[in-house]
Design brief:
Largest sheet: none
Shape: globular
CATH architecture: Up-down Bundle
Number of helices: 9
Order of helices and strands: HHHHHHHHH
Radius of gyration: 22 Å
Distance between the termini: 66 Å
Helix content: over 70%
Number of strands: 0
Amino acid sequence: EPTPDSSWSTCDYTRNVTFFYNLVGKEIRTVWTTRDIVVIGLGLTVCVIVSLANIMVMVAIFVNHRFHFPIYYLLGNMAAADLFAGMAYANLMLNTGPWTSTLTKQQWYVRGALIDISLTASVGSLLAVAVERHQTVITMQLHSTMTRRRVVLLIAIWAVSVAMGLVPSTVWNCECDLRDCSTVAPIYSKRFLVFWAGLNLLTFLVMVAMYARIFVIVSYRSRYTSQHTADLSNSQTVINLMKTISMVLGAFVVCWTPGLVILLLDGLLGRDSHANTYEKFCLVMAECNSLVNPVIYALRDREMRRTFRWILCCLCGRKQP
């Protein structure tokens, strides 16, 4: 097992991927095990389902003119990010296990960058949808034009995501500071992973604040309206809103908490965190959020479900009843 140079802070860009894996004690398998095959098989299955589900959402938004409004464009952007996440995860599955040792550092960085970009874009899109819904409730304007501000928001999501993907390979890695090497992603800086985890946690807290304010406003308006009318639909609206909010935040917590905890523990404890034991499970959970998103945001929309049935009927070559 190689040991670090006499100076832990010496920049040596000739070190290969295997050096960093051995340095942090992360095993690169030389032969395929049953566990590897099962993990890759399940991973690729998730990728296919994620890709198909999000392609359906994007096609539905494109073909149905009733969806040609800002909130649906943001949902389409999130579907594109989740589709990208599925493809990035498939690339990871096809370059893992014994294949890892064949990767150059540049290929390894690209593999990680694709995951970083897609997951950051997915989380950013979740936040954008929360912001748009908040704005809709405040202004009481359900449909509006695609303003320059919204276009800038979409561009900003992808710009930040690409930046987060490029930072580790350019300015924030452990090639010049071996003490800072992550055990989960050996060439990545532990401080960068803690920063990335913290950024996602901050995003979640902002979403909680947004949806909490939405719920308070809608509840207040519903109570006010109920005092002046006998319409029971207002209380049903609040109940439906609460269900959607609970599903959105609950899915984020379930899918992202394991991975964020692992990254934080890795950054704080290093090898003592035993993060590698749960790494692949946590990544699969984060990827599953890209599958849950279209279910929550699309399938709870009656018009979206109708469009899905129409698309499937077209693919099957028969008319919708």
